[in-house]
């Protein structure tokens, strides 16, 4: 969750008051969405996405003053996508060809979602300030809620490594002042596969947000929303970050509103991330190849899905959308390390 750009409070409240979900039977044509386009910055984009590919709005009626639409994750065996409606404290379900419906509520205003190696849902909960795992029977296991006796801030995004370890970002996004029992920094944490050890791996970002591994998991990418860039770190053998390898991977600021938020990587190592005015596509060296302009300045999160993992789902403040790509994304759950 982050500050919204360029939208009046009156408009936010009007939208949130609607509170309904627009149910669609599938993709809406790009012709119905003014200003949507795919910009090409380098010829390498041709192998990733067609510049004529329609950018589709799938479902609306989510997001509002208390938080945006967020957290998409594809549930392959069910053929549907789950995503978060933070404002209304709901978990939504989108099924291609059927539309969107409420899957679960309340959710403690959950934000980022992913799945662990066993396929269980992990959620970053705002109101409860914790990361949780939903078991097969529906019960909840707390993955993390405190560190060294202090409450977590507001966990934002979460990913899982092939060894079963869990990484999550924890920025201070509350409008309230910190209290004496709160953390004094925004962090990125690692949870061991057995949930027994919580390790702070980074504490010098202003607003750590999206997280993603390179295909071979040798590099961890982390958004710093406030600074407008993605940083990259080589991984140490013990699962922490090799701090001496810290570098700015790419700057995603620009004249339009919007900043780095949500991030995913395809199997070829290309990095997708929200930025100023849309979703940027970079190669593994940080070269900008193109930008998906979906009609809203902010991109709150993205996820690969579909039977072939070639549908890029995205969320912005008020709706869920999608666009087709040519290279599959890294599947979720990630394959267990052998």
Kindly summarize this structure in a few lines:
The protein has one helix and 27 strands. The protein is mostly beta strands and 338 residues long.
Question: How would you sum up this structure, described in words?
Answer:
This protein has one domain (9-324): TolB, C-terminal domain (Neuraminidase, 6 Propeller), CATH 2.120.10. A hairpin with a 4-residue loop joins strand 3 and strand 4 (80-85). The strands form 7 sheets. Strands 1-24-23-22-21 form a 5-stranded antiparallel sheet, with no helix packed on it. The protein has a 4-stranded antiparallel sheet with strand order 2-27-26-25, with no helix packed on it. With 338 residues, it is an all-beta fold. It has one helix spanning 9-18; strands at 37-40, 56-59, 69-75, 80-85, 90-95, 99-104, 110-115, 121-125, 130-134, 140-144, 146-147, 150-151, 158-160, 166-170, 187-191, 198-202, 208-213, 219-224, 229-235, 241-251, 261-265, 271-275, 278-282, 288-293, 301-305, 311-315, 320-324.
CATH topology: Neuraminidase
Low-pLDDT residue intervals, each spanning 5 or more residues: 1-21, 23-33
Major sheet: arrangement of strands = 1-24-23-22-21
Tally of individual helices: 1
Percent in helix: under 10%
Class inferred from helices and paired strands: mainly beta
- Tell me the strand percentage band: 35-45%
Q: Write down the Rg.
A: 18 Å
List the helices and strands and how they pair.
Layout: H1 9-18, E1 37-40, E2 56-59, E3 69-75, E4 80-85, E5 90-95, E6 99-104, E7 110-115, E8 121-125, E9 130-134, E10 140-144, E11 146-147, E12 150-151, E13 158-160, E14 166-170, E15 187-191, E16 198-202, E17 208-213, E18 219-224, E19 229-235, E20 241-251, E21 261-265, E22 271-275, E23 278-282, E24 288-293, E25 301-305, E26 311-315, E27 320-324
Antiparallel strand pairs: 1-24, 2-27, 3-4, 4-5, 5-6, 7-8, 8-9, 9-10, 11-12, 13-14, 14-15, 15-16, 17-18, 18-19, 19-20, 21-22, 22-23, 23-24, 25-26, 26-27
């Amino acid at each position: 969750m982050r500050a919204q750009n360029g939208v009046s409070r009156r408009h936010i409240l009007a939208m949130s008051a609607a509170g309904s979900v627009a149910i669609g039977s599938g993709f809406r044509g790009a012709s119905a969405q003014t200003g949507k386009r795919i910009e090409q910055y380098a010829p390498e984009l041709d192998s990733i996405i067609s510049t004529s590919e329609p950018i589709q709005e799938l479902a609306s009626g989510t997001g509002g003053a208390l938080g945006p639409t967020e957290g998409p994750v594809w549930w392959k065996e069910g053929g549907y996508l789950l995503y978060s409606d933070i404002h209304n404290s709901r978990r939504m379900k989108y099924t291609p060809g059927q539309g969107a419906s409420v899957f679960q509520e309340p959710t403690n205003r959950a934000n980022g979602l992913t799945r662990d190696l066993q396929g269980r849902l992990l959620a970053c909960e705002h109101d409860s300030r914790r990361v949780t795992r939903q078991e097969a029977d529906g019960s909840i296991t707390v993955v993390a809620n405190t560190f060294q006796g202090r409450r977590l801030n507001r966990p934002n995004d979460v990913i899982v490594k092939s060894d079963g370890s869990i990484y999550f970002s924890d920025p201070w996004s509350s409008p309230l002042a910190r209290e004496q029992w709160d953390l004094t920094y925004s962090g990125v944490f690692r949870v061991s596969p057995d949930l027994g050890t919580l390790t702070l791996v980074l504490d010098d970002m202003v607003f750590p947000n999206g997280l993603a591994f390179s295909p071979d998991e040798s590099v961890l990418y982390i958004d710093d929303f406030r600074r407008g860039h993605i940083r990259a770190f080589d991984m140490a053998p013990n699962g922490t970050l090799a701090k001496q390898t810290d570098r700015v991977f790419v700057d995603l600021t620009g004249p339009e509103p919007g900043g780095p938020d949500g991030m995913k990587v395809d199997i070829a190592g290309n990095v997708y991330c929200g930025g100023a005015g849309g979703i940027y596509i970079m190669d593994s060296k940080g070269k900008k190849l193109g930008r998906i302009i979906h009609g809203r300045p902010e991109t709150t999160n993205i996820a690969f899905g579909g039977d072939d993992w070639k549908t890029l789902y995205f969320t912005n403040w008020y709706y869920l959308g999608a666009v087709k790509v040519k290279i599959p994304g890294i599947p979720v759950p990630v394959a267990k390390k052998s």
